[in-house]
Amino acid sequence: NQQFLLELVQTLKEKGKKVLLTLIGDGKTSPDLKEKAKKLGIEGEVEFTGIVSNPEKYLNRAHLYVHSAWHEPFGLVLIEAMSCGLPIVSFNTGGPREIINEGKTGYLVEKHDLKTFAEKVLQLTENQEVYQQFSENAITSSKQYDIRNYAERLLEFYKSLD
Questions:
Q1: Which pLDDT does position 78 carry in this prediction?
Q2: Which of 12, 49, 79, 151 is 20 to 30 A away from residue 6, measured at CA?
C-alpha cells in the first residue's frame, strides 16, 4: 500500500512541509509507484532505494517510520524501527495494534484515513518534546522483544517445571 504513502507525501507537501519518503525494496509495483510520484509532482520527495543489504542504515537516518500495510500479522519491521528510536504511524491493524503503544510509541490510524494519518505525522514532526518522548518509549518498548529476554523467560519456565 505504498500508493497511500505517496498521497501522504503530497498532502504534507501541500501543507508546506519538507518531506523525504524513502521506499526500501523493489517489486512489480515499483514502476507504478515511480509513475504516480511523478504524476503527483513529488518525485523529488521520494527516494526509491531498490533492494538493499543494510536496511538498518536507512532506519538509523530516518526521523519517523510510517507503515501503510493493510494486513500485517506481526510486523518485525515495526520492532526494528522502534529499536532505532523511531516513533511509528501505522494503520490500526493486527500486528501494529499488538506492537504500537498508542500515544506512547506511535499512533494507530484507521485504514484510508489520510487526513488523520497526516495529522499524526505532523504531531510527531512539529513537537520536539513529544517526538523525543515517543522515541525513548519506542526504544524501551522494543527491548521486550529482544531474544535474550525471551530466552531468559523460557529458561525460567522450564526450571519451574522441576
A1: 96
A2: 79
Determine if the pTM surpasses 0.85: yes
> Cα-Cα-Cα-Cα dihedral of 33, 1, 5, 83, to 10°?
-120
| Residue 73 near residue 95 (C-beta atoms within 8 A) | yes
* Angle made by CA atoms 30, 85, 25, in degrees to the nearest 5: 15
Residues composing the chain: 162
Q: What are phi and psi of 17, to 5 degrees?
A: -90, 140
Report the C-alpha gap between 118 and 114 in whole angstroms: 6
Which helix (H) or strand (E) covers residue 148, if one does?
helix 147-160
Cell of 109: 490510524
Residue 113's nearest CA partner among 22, 14, 7, 19 is: 7
The answer to whether the CB of 71 falls within 8 A of the CB of 96 is no
pLDDT band at 154 (very low <50, low <70, confident <90, very high): confident
Are 90 and 106 spatial neighbours (Cβ–Cβ below 8 Å)?
yes
